[in-house]
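hiii so um. not sure if this is the right channel but i have a protein structure encoded as tokens and i wanna go backwards to a sequence. like what aa goes where. can anyone help
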């Protein structure tokens, strides 16, 4: 069962040198995430290079991960399709293969109207029994799931949560004021995570967690325990790294960080290319400086 709270990584997809799936590397990262205290895992999100992996590969990752974690955490499949038909097909495929939930984006490659956006989510929800997290990211995807849209969507029982990525933290309070606890709220922007949790977000659907799972989880558990200043201290150290998530090359940035922390490699599928030149050096400088000053963490899982 997905509780839609805590730290839920939108994990990267690991590739071998020939760019086939690297299941061993994927499982190695997943092991580190589970040991750090995550509360779920999203497969094939934007950070997971959704646009370059096939539905078949998604199901391979789903089945391998379900087998590997053996019920320790829920496994969620991302849906980012261009047609309603394909979105329904993937939702049903995920359900048939044992997914615990779905993260659903608005239509890709078409800026839908509010009515079209509403019907898109309603139709997908009606065609699966799985619980759904609505990904609301108008900054990157140019479609906002407004509160009025959510007014209709909450009538679908299996629409359970929102990945709040509007970059406007006051939206958390608006959601709470309008819907109470009907919708779980997960922060989807790494650089706003601590603020969002203090404002009432239920958790953090995170990116840099792929390379730094313990630091990410420590912030969440410290906030939950009321030890906010300790969380702030870690968060301030973390911020230069977290800013790598709000960047068009977030996949390359985070995969390079994973390589440095021993939790992955930087192989990406075209049209992406590994970081090069001055930008590569800039990111390396951030990672290396952060590793040199990496904070000692309290025993946050014992709080």
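sure thing!! here u go:
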């Amino acid at each position: 069962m997905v509780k839609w709270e805590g730290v839920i990584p939108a994990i990267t997809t690991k590739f071998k040198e020939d760019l086939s799936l690297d299941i061993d590397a994927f499982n190695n990262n997943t092991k580190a995430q589970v040991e750090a205290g995550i509360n779920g895992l999203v497969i094939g999100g934007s950070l997971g290079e959704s646009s370059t992996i096939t539905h078949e590969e998604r199901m391979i990752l789903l089945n391998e991960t379900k087998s590997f974690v053996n019920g320790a955490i829920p496994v969620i499949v991302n849906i980012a399709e261009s047609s309603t038909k394909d979105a329904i097909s993937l939702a049903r495929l995920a359900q048939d293969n044992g997914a615990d939930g779905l993260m659903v984006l608005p239509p890709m490659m078409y800026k839908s109207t509010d009515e079209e956006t509403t019907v898109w989510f309603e139709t997908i929800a009606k065609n699966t029994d799985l619980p759904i997290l609505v990904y609301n990211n108008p900054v990157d995807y140019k479609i906002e799931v407004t509160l009025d849209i959510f007014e209709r969507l909450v009538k679908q029982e299996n629409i359970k949560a929102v990945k709040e990525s509007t970059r406007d933290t006051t939206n958390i309070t608006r959601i709470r004021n309008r819907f109470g606890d009907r919708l779980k709220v997960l922060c989807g922007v790494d650089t706003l995570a601590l603020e969002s949790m203090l404002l009432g977000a239920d958790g953090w659907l995170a990116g840099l967690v792929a390379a730094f799972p313990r630091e990410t989880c420590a912030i969440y558990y410290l906030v939950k325990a009321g030890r906010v200043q300790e969380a702030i201290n870690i968060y301030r150290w973390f911020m230069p790294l977290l800013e790598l998530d709000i960047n068009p090359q977030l996949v390359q940035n985070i995969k390079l960080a994973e390589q440095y922390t021993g939790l992955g490699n930087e192989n990406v599928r075209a049209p992406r290319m590994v970081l090069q030149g001055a930008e590569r050096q800039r990111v390396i400088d951030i990672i290396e400086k952060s590793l040199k000053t990496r904070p000692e963490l309290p025993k946050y899982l014992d709080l």
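oh and The beta strands are 6-9, 41-43, 75-79, 101-104, 132-136, 159-164, 184-187, 203-206.
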